[in-house]
Design brief:
This protein is α+β, with helices and mostly antiparallel strands. It contains nine helices and 22 strands. It has an 18-stranded mixed sheet that branches. It has a two-stranded antiparallel sheet with strand order 11-12. Strands 21-22 form a two-stranded antiparallel sheet. It starts with a strand and ends with a strand.
């Protein structure tokens, strides 16, 4: 250290300041208008307390008036460089450098540069005293930074490359006033980003769970969907997210992020004075549904940056699944009425087991019960015809019936109306041979077959709407068949047609 006139010089500084080693030199001119020139190097520098000291906020309550700080009373510049620079919120620049300069009326943090997450960060901050208090202007830029290195307390950007441009402006007489008056705008550019907790496979799982009957209500649907949603990520090739700052609140308008198979619409913000954040995301499939009707899952995260509370809303997804089930069942019933084979159920992954369907190759105690198509014969039978002769004729009629019916699990099973007509014809043939009792048994057999087929269809599809409609249709057909197709016979055994 040397003193020449009013100039004080510190050469070869080497000391410990706030736990960090400091080296460099300073020259101070102790005149009416003080001046400072120098260069400093540190192992580690924490920028927040240095900035608070510079604007006169150090040692003051947030609502207390600011002091003069370093904004007035000196001229000159001091350049600094540190191996590590800790930013607001905990992110680090490695290394960081810049220049602190003053013209006697304002203080400027100029050409602040640093490396972060493999990219670069630059900033400049100007502080000037005015009639309405301290006015601050700032400009911040990030270029090709790994998003995971950008964090504020416990909040962090997803993995990927991020760039940002932001301008800030505020004015006030206290720290709280400066935060409440903060305004500005900016844009974040994302490349190769993966948004965690937004796995689009959740839509496929939800649809299959609904089709297989496992999603019995919204609570069960949420239990199925939420782990799948949280277990993956939504890849975003590139996106731009604009934001604005007003009255201390950072707001992100609804912005759509396009991805393969799904789009995510994000919005939200952060209230700086209240220290409260809210993040909203709506994940919509682009491969399922129509342009006017897509399945959607909404997510909400609220709380402080130290710990957000996440919730999943599947109300829109549940409504879409209900509409899909109604439309799917309507088309299936239309196909049955036209005599076309109903569509097969969608395939179900192993994670959601499909209802068991009897195998055509399964061993059968009665091989003769197989129909010509190779399917197992009808599972349920009504009571056999009374008497030995009726039993023989019933067995013969049963052998003929195997060619007209297929098991309920077959993809090309006959429509219900066709099965009813075939049963009626067999009833007439048996009656013409003097078998009124056998005809009644065949009619009862056909009625049992229709009920078994309807129950099997409902079991396979797990569809309550279709079960009700098929059951009612089978009952009506059976009653009409009994009343219109049954024949009377005379004492000689000849058939007598009954006209009603």
């Amino acid at each position: 250290m040397s003193l020449v006139g009013d100039k004080l010089t510190f050469d070869d500084l080497d000391s410990i300041v706030a736990g960090s080693r400091l080296r460099g030199h300073l020259a101070l001119t102790l005149a009416d208008e003080k001046s400072v020139e120098g260069e400093l190097g540190l192992d580690r520098i924490t920028l927040a307390p240095i900035f608070a000291t510079a604007i006169g906020a150090a040692g003051h309550d947030a609502t207390a008036p600011l002091g003069t700080g370093l904004t007035k009373g000196w001229r000159g510049k001091v350049t600094f460089e540190a191996l590590r620079g800790v930013l607001f919120g905990g992110a680090e620049l490695q290394p960081v450098s810049g220049t602190l300069r003053s013209d006697g009326q304002s203080l400027t943090f100029d050409r602040i540069k640093g490396k972060i997450g493999g990219g670069e960060a630059t900033a400049s901050i100007d502080a000037r005293q005015g009639v309405n208090g301290l006015a601050l202007n700032a400009n911040v830029q990030l270029s090709n930074v790994d998003g995971s290195a950008l964090r504020y307390r416990n909040l962090a950007m997803p993995k990927g490359r991020a760039s940002m441009q932001m301008t800030l402006l505020t004015q006030g007489r206290s720290t709280s006033a400066l935060m409440g008056a903060l305004s500005g705008s900016g844009t974040v550019t994302l490349e190769g980003m993966s948004l965690p907790g937004l796995d689009p496979r959740a839509f496929d799982v939800a649809i299959r769970a609904s089709d297989s009957g496992q999603a019995t209500d919204d609570a069960r649907l949420k239990q199925i969907v939420e782990p799948v949603l949280a277990g993956g990520a939504l890849p975003i090739a590139s996106a731009q997210i604009p934001f604005n700052i007003r009255d201390g609140r950072i707001r992100v308008g609804a912005t759509t992020l396009a991805a393969s198979g799904a789009n995510a619409t994000v919005s939200g913000g952060y209230d700086i004075p209240a220290d409260q954040a809210d993040i909203r995301a709506a994940l919509a499939s682009t491969q399922i549904g129509t342009a006017n009707s897509r399945p959607e899952i909404q997510l909400l995260a609220v709380g402080t940056p130290d710990g957000l509370t996440r919730s999943v809303d599947i109300a829109a997804l549940s409504s879409w699944l209900a509409v899909r089930a109604i439309d799917r069942e309507t088309r299936r019933l239309d196909a049955i009425e036209r005599g076309d084979p109903p569509p097969l159920p969608d395939s179900v992954p192993s994670a959601i087991p499909q209802p068991a369907i009897p195998s055509p190759d399964a061993p059968n105690a009665n091989p003769a019960a197989l129909s010509p198509c190779g399917c197992a014969a009808a599972r349920s039978r009504s009571a056999p015809p009374a008497g030995p002769e009726a039993e023989d004729r019933g067995a013969a009629a049963s052998a003929g019936r195997h060619g007209a019916y297929c098991c309920a699990a077959s993809a090309d099973r006959k429509p219900v109306a066709g099965r009813a007509a075939a049963a009626a014809n067999r009833g007439q043939a048996a009656a013409r041979h003097g078998e009124a009792e056998a005809a009644a048994a065949i009619v009862a057999d056909a009625t049992g077959r229709q009920s078994a087929a309807a129950a099997s269809d409902a079991e396979l599809d797990h569809d309550a709407i279709r079960l009700n409609r098929i059951t009612i249709s089978s009952l009506c057909l059976s009653l009409s068949m009994v009343s219109a197709q049954t024949l009377h016979v005379c004492r000689e055994g000849k058939p007598l047609h009954t006209l009603r």
